[in-house]
Amino acid sequence: MRYILLSFLIALTQTSWAHSREEKNWSNPPRNIEQLAKTITELEEAIKKEPVNAELHIRLGFTYTKLDKADEAQQAFENAARLDPKKAIVHYMLGLIYEKKGMRDNAIASWKACLENTGERHMRETALKHLHNLTNQ
Questions:
Q1: How far apart are CA 9 and CA 45, in angstroms?
Q2: For a tag on the chain, would you pick the N or C end, based on fewer CB atoms within 10 A?
Q3: Do residues 118 and 88 lie in contact, with contact meaning Cβ atoms separated by under 8 Å?
């Protein structure tokens, strides 16, 4: 199950990059640590200019996720959730992060919010599985 989630997370990360092409060309995700660090700097600068742009916070969260920085990713996704609470992917990612950190109640709330805000079959199925596992512990 862990490998399935990791595969799905990687696929979502790459999908997120492909769908995000505003001021910069985000279609080619950074491949190494130096590029990721540069991307973080650029995203943080962009957020200073547009602090209410949820998409920038989401991209920042995914970039931190690629660097395995759960605390920073959590903060970025929480900011995105405050700005756009209807974004299912934000709740999905928070659900994963909260589970990883052992924050069961937060994870349950995030998975429920994901279900409420998505029509995507795979995302719904994954959220339901996580909720089932969390509530039957």
A1: 26
A2: C
A3: yes
How many CB atoms sit inside 10 A of residue 45's CB?
10
Contact 76, 57 (CB under 8 A): yes
Q: Which CATH class is domain 2-135?
A: mainly alpha
Alpha carbons 81 and 88: distance in angstroms, whole number: 9
Closest CA to 93 of 27, 12, 25: 12
In order, the DSSP letters of 122-134 are HHHHHHHHHHHHH
Show me where the domains of the chain are located: 2-135
Closest CA to 73 of 60, 83, 86, 84: 60
Structure tokens at 34: 């130096």
Structure confidence by residue, pLDDT tens digits, 94-122: 999 999 999 999 999 999 999 999 999 99
Angle at 38 between CA 52 and CA 4, to 5 degrees: 80
Tokens 């937060």: give the residue. Answer: 106
Distance of CA 106 to the CA centre of its chain: 15
